[in-house]
Amino acid sequence: MNEDIKTFTISIYTENNIGLLNRISAIFQRRHINIESLTTSQSEIEGVNRFVIVVNITEEQAKKIVGQFEKQIEVIRAFYHTDEETIYQESCMFKIKSNLLFEEPQIQNIIKESNTRIVTVNKEFFVLEKSGRRNEIESLRRDLNVFGIMQFVRSGRIAVTKDEMKVTEMLLAFNNQ
Amino acid sequence: MNTQTAKKTKEVINKTERITGSEAIIKCLIAEGVDILYGYPGGAIMPVYDELYKYQDKIHHVLTRHEQGATHAAQGYARISGKVGVAMATSGPGATNLVTGIADAQIDSTPMVCITGQVFSHLLGSDAFQETDIVGISTPVTKWNHQVTKASEIPEVLAKAFYIAKSGRPGPVLIDITKDAQVSELDFEYKKCTGIRSYIPVPKTNPDKVKAAAELINSAKKPMIVWGQGVILGQAENELKAVIEKAGIPSAWTILGASAIPTSHPLNIGMVGMHGNYAPNKLTNECDVLIAIGMRFDDRVTGSLNTYAKQAKIIHFDIDPAEIDKNVKTDVAVIGDSKDSLAKLLPLLKETSHDSWLKEFKDLYAIEFEKVIKDDITPTKEGLTMGEVIRQINIETKGNAAIVSDVGQHQMIACRYADFNITKSNITSGGLGTMGFALPAAIGAKMAAPEREVVAIIGDGGYQMTIQELGTIFQQKVPVKIVVLNNEFLGMVRQWQQLFFDKRYASTEMTNPNFVAIAEGYYIKARKVVKREELAEAVKEMIASKDSYFLEVCVEKEGNVFPMIPSGASVSDVRLS
């Protein structure tokens, strides 16, 4: 197994219960694995949550840690994938002083060229939103930074896999037992 | 609580009735077959104790002298009986005192349910009196835990708790119940849990893997088995014995696997690990196929992984998929229940014997006997040894006793030299190495199996960690036999200091109290042995006693446990001195 450190996206399908985040983060903490990003939301299955966690580890570590997740009672299935095996995005928001929008025509070009969306504009500030890969967001941040950013925030990665996730089948199999 | 997640069954044990949460807890315990529970009352669990008072003819509550004692007693109960042990405590300090026992049960896969009281739900998060986040604290050391804030949740959550604790790879479950959930009412109806959709306790054995394992075993010239507690937990002792005998495989055990196959079995080649036997450690690095059954390649078993059985093909039978390739890479992994997997393996095996290979073990045993064992169990020099005490206990109990040991030198000596004829007879803290385990665990073991002779073997250090449980033994009249092997040292740490820290005995020497007087203070019959001539008679008297009995044996102060694999060394570098 490859011993190189790589970026892995870990997907964990779980029951929606209080305390599960604690259980999952404890597994990372105990092994000194830093979480690059963590997102949790409803999944494609009603009542089932999905954690999407990005970590930089070896494949061997990824395999072992997924085993530890699957061992948790309320974890339905867990998977790890490389960047090549997933379609992934992040999202970001910028809050910028409104006068700059009119005084710096370059900003309008940046917005247009980067396909950034204007969420709101008022007298004091305007808010931009963009989804994309990390490098796109970073380059946008650098471009806008020149003019001054009041606030910047970026979400964790969300990702879907190219492969099928056989979680529904597993749940159906349980119901048909 | 998501009610869709637990499977409904038609088996309704009780018709619906309107009762309090506290009464529901007791009814759930009775429905799960709990006859004894161990605990300690306090503010936040008082309503449950009030119900226990009413149900005392159906369920026996044992008041331990500390909550840690309650968990270890529940563990001892579980380990000897295979049933779920139950411990109960109040919120705050009561709950935190359970944590050591819970961690011990987690790492040693012991089925246990802990019930803790919690402050009223409206006070949660307010730093209320005796409020502590026990669910948060116990998360990393429980198989599952849950906080109940509504009386109506109690039956389903407790049903899940027992199901999770005992199914698959067993473990501890903690259920925290707020006081308002205890005092408010619910419509009670109990259904046992038979499945949880996100949890596969017993993965199905893959017949192809069993076949691959059988082929490897059949082609092996020097096969060796190392079995662990998975055989005992899976009740696969007979299946293992049949496999060993049919394929003629020399078989060793981990500390928690001890007693699954009798000590006297000709293919039983002893214990592996840091203080295990010479032959199985040494020959781990000579075998061509290593068959691990229900064990997890703990670092105390493997020594350095870089030099562990590198020449061998590895077959790993385990119920827990997360154990496969965790420490040692396997060539064939058979995931599933040990009883089922071994039963499927048996017909595929060729009837064989490996006489010259087995002789290699016997030859190395002879060396170990000459250099270590002889002087340990039949010493001629002055000063009593721990080994000769174990030998006397073997003689008096004919190898039929359950041995409950604590942690340290005496534990290694007890596991090395005790004769085991009966399975589930070695009750010890393996993975966590919890000093103070033995005395309360022996109480639980004796209460779960009153027909068995239960002998606790404890060091003078560990004994004083839970010595208060003498009070429980006295009050409950538990006829356990307590042997303290007193070397006036924390012996194992001292041994390391001698070998690896140039004899700098930092904080390991103990000035001990009058142990006999303490035992007598609890009205327990007590005796102290300082001379070899007194030993046999004293052990005889102890075993013959119908009541609890305390025996202190003053052993040599600086005795060492050998063989030994130094920390981080290879199993084949096992030292005899």
TrEMBL record, chain A:
Its EC number is 2.2.1.6. GO terms for molecular function: acetolactate synthase activity; acetolactate synthase regulator activity. Residues 9-89 form the ACT domain. Pathway: Amino-acid biosynthesis; L-isoleucine biosynthesis; L-isoleucine from 2-oxobutanoate: step 1/4; Amino-acid biosynthesis; L-valine biosynthesis; L-valine from pyruvate: step 1/4. CDD domains: ACT_AHAS. It catalyses: 2 pyruvate + H(+) = (2S)-2-acetolactate + CO2. GO terms for biological process: isoleucine biosynthetic process; L-valine biosynthetic process. Gene3D superfamilies: 3.30.70.260, ACT-like. Chain A, domain 2 (3.30.70.1150). One of its GO terms (cellular component) is cytosol. Keywords: Amino-acid biosynthesis, Branched-chain amino acid biosynthesis, Transferase. It comes from the Bacteria. Belongs to the acetolactate synthase small subunit family. NCBIfam families: acolac_sm. Dimer of large and small chains. This is Acetolactate synthase small subunit. It comes from Flaviramulus basaltis.
From TrEMBL, chain B:
It catalyses: 2 pyruvate + H(+) = (2S)-2-acetolactate + CO2. It is an enzyme of class 2 (transferase). It comes from the Bacteria. The keyword Metal-binding applies. Binds 1 thiamine pyrophosphate per subunit. Residues 210-345 form the Thiamine pyrophosphate enzyme central domain. Pathway: Amino-acid biosynthesis; L-valine biosynthesis; L-valine from pyruvate: step 1/4; Amino-acid biosynthesis; L-isoleucine biosynthesis; L-isoleucine from 2-oxobutanoate: step 1/4. Residues 20-135 form the Thiamine pyrophosphate enzyme N-terminal TPP-binding domain. GO terms for cellular component: acetolactate synthase complex. Its cofactor is thiamine diphosphate; Mg(2+). GO terms for biological process: isoleucine biosynthetic process; L-valine biosynthetic process. Residues 406-553 form the Thiamine pyrophosphate enzyme TPP-binding domain. Its EC number is 2.2.1.6. InterPro entries: Acetolactate_synth_lsu, AHAS_TPP, DHS-like_NAD/FAD-binding_dom, THDP-binding, Thiamin_PyroP_enz_cen_dom, Thiamin_PyroP_enz_TPP-bd_dom, TPP-bd_CS, TPP_enz. The keyword Amino-acid biosynthesis applies. Keywords: Amino-acid biosynthesis, Branched-chain amino acid biosynthesis, Magnesium, Metal-binding, Thiamine pyrophosphate, Transferase. PANTHER family: ACETOLACTATE SYNTHASE CATALYTIC SUBUNIT, MITOCHONDRIAL, THIAMINE PYROPHOSPHATE ENZYMES. Belongs to the TPP enzyme family. NCBIfam families: acolac_lg. This is Acetolactate synthase. It comes from Flaviramulus basaltis.
